[in-house]
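Ligand-bound model needed. D-tryptophan.
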Amino acid sequence: MRKFVRLTGAGFLLACLMSVSALAGTTLTYANFPPAPTFPCVQMEQWKAEVEKRTNGALAIQTFPGSTLLGAKNMLRGVQTGQADIGCISTSYYPGVFPLISVVNLPVAFTSTEVASKVMWDLFQKYQPDEFKNVKVLTVFTSAPSHIMSTVAVKQLSDLKGLELRASGSILKILNGLGAQGVGMPMSQTPEALQKGIVKGLVSSYDVLKDLNFAEQCQYETVTNLPVYPFVVIMNKARWESLPAETQKTLDKLSREQAIWTGQYLDDYTTKALAWAKGKYQVDVFTLTDAEYAEIRKQGEPLIAAWKADAIEAGLDAEAILAEMLALKAKYETD
Ligand code: DTR
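Prediction:
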């Protein structure tokens, strides 16, 4: 009898240990390149909290903002090789690598991040781009429309002559067409470049006025309504396949919700960040004339033709993809 009790006791202990280890679950690492206060990292923390809640803690996410695990340019490779399980990439930092999804970075006058992010998500579902075949895409979103933030006043387009401005993707070409000197670099290198005077400003969305305190140095903001930048959150494929089907379902369900959450967050936040910059640093905000906005649009036109040529070269139906994007944009703008 004693022996039986001892044996059942041991069995009970084993059962307890087994169920604890099942509950203890999995931890996934998530790398991001810009500093923690910026919106790609804010959405990362939001996603982490949501995932941990929806899986009752069975799946834990360990986040690494500020390039502490992977930087802007080695993010794609780092996730593919498993240095991080998950990573956030800005596709504009990889010229030529994402021929389909770079359509979202074209100058087609997105005015809302929520709309741009929904459009991007739908394009993803429809085309399942080949360029992401080696990773699992967890969610997608865009930055807000881009504007000039500079240390010298850009009151009119002629003030751009020779001005070194940091940007990336399609905006670099538009800037050069307008007479400025576009300098390509990831956001994570921009604070130092500004500090050292390598650039006299940047072109991006207004969130960074506050999050990276650019308003302190960039006293002048010129509303230019330049393109949004696409972001994709990717996961190592083998790691994804190792997750239980239930967990995969939970993450897939969160995908579109996350895109919308981020879009809404950023639309609201860019307005607040600009108001904050006005209040704290009394920044000046300039708008341009209609003729100047028309000139910006004109500079953008060749980019659409160039994107089409690249997309066709990559074997894509460029006309259909562009038409689909514009139709989705129109649909969500009137929703
Ligand atoms: N405009 C893109 C994207 C962007 C906008 N805000 C942030 C903050 C942190 C990283 C990237 C971005 C860019 O300038 O890279």
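Residues 23 and 58 are 6 Å apart (CA to CA).
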